[in-house]
Write a structure and sequence with these properties.
Blueprint: H1 3-14, E1 27-31, E2 34-37, E3 42-45, H2 48-51, H3 60-70, H4 84-93, E4 104-108, H5 111-126, E5 130-134, H6 143-146, E6 166-169, H7 178-182, H8 195-206, E7 213-218, H9 234-244, E8 248-252, E9 276-279, E10 290-294, H10 296-299, H11 315-330, H12 333-355, E11 361-367, E12 370-376, H13 382-394, E13 396-397, E14 399-401, E15 405-409, H14 417-436
Parallel strand pairs: 3-13, 5-6, 5-7, 7-8, 8-9
Antiparallel strand pairs: 1-2, 2-3, 4-10, 9-10, 11-12, 12-15, 14-15
Keywords: Aminotransferase, Pyridoxal phosphate, Transferase
Cofactor: pyridoxal 5'-phosphate
Family: Belongs to the class-III pyridoxal-phosphate-dependent aminotransferase family.
Amino acid sequence: MSTLQKLAQFGQRHIAKGIGRSTELVIEKGKGAYVFTTEGKKYLDFTSGIGVTNTGHCHPHVVKAVQEQAATLTHGQCNIFYHKPMLELIEKLQPKMPSKSLDTFFFWNSGSEAVEAAVKLARHATKKQNIIVFQGSYHGRTIGTMSMTTSKTIYGAGYGPLMSGVHVAPFPYCNQCAVHKSSPDTFNINNCCNDPIRQLELVFKQRSAPSDTAAVIIEPVQGEGGYVVPPKDFLAKLREICDKNNVLLIADEVQSGFGRTGKMFAVEHWNVTPDILVMAKGIASGYPLSGIVSRKELMDKQPAGSMGGTYGGNVVACAAANATLEVFDNEKLLENTNARSEELFSALRSRIPKMLPKGASVDIRGLGLMIGIEFSGVPAGFASKIANEARDNHDMLLLTTSIYETLRLIPPLNVTKEETADAIERIMKSVEGAVNQL
């Protein structure tokens, strides 16, 4: 038995079974777009820790900042002190916000915690309780956030009763929309039927009165729901509805933020400003940090002591986040994201449809380097077969997502032109291998 197998078996015995895992690999190190197992095998990583290592694994500038900070101060508890890395981070983040009105920050550790912080702020500031979420959403796995997650039942099944006051509206998922399927040439992503807007208005009339509704929360591009991009005018109409009903709009940019879609935050694609923006994942290149940002008049409604946490805004994580933003600027990561995105979309859309069996089709969608590939007319498990082919035969890591047969591509934002070309060929070979198994 190899060392890798022994370590994996040890993990199977002693790590909580509730943690889902897509591989049994034991990773020892990472560099750029690659990870290496304890036995030295090298994999091209198009998962980025589920959209976390946006600057690649162990970017030297981030590593240096972390090393220097760890040798100076490792914990400056936010309810006791200010610390310089957090203050510098706010100074760097403010100009990158979608609007100057988003000027006041609170930092925590994980995406789930940041979503809960946004809910706390919305409820406290409005003195209202209900939250409206969208079908297919993913907001986390704490009791509060699993109550708001609707992408898969596995995240909340058996854990009830969950948080009350959550209501669900349809997300404009054109590829799975009954109206689109009945009239695909008339209604599609470029010409939405806008039924989800009408359904949201019904939620306000039938289930959650505006006088009881604190906020609507949305992922500008759905993550676990399938990397689904809304039609071009949906977020603007959502903003109008929230304003009309005196309801706050929360943008959950945990996965779509920090350059993932080719802009710093996905809401910028539609020129929409949320009342509260949630961020995490790519913010600190792999160090645990999350946060919310909102208007000062909203944040100032909360009494001192009502927010905080032992590790919230950890000083080392803040140092990593500062270095991450410096890498974004110095290496022009947004420009690289958009260039590599064009190459991937061009190859995927021109080649994959030709590889599929008769009766099968594919919807290739996304923004920037947040790319979903949804297959229709294929057997259940087809997307997983592709991911397995990529891992076992082509030394590449891919993830599936949603309840449908969907792959997601999440490379680091500094992936090179050469690595992208290599990845395209590995993906094509993996699709071919999965098709041959049908």
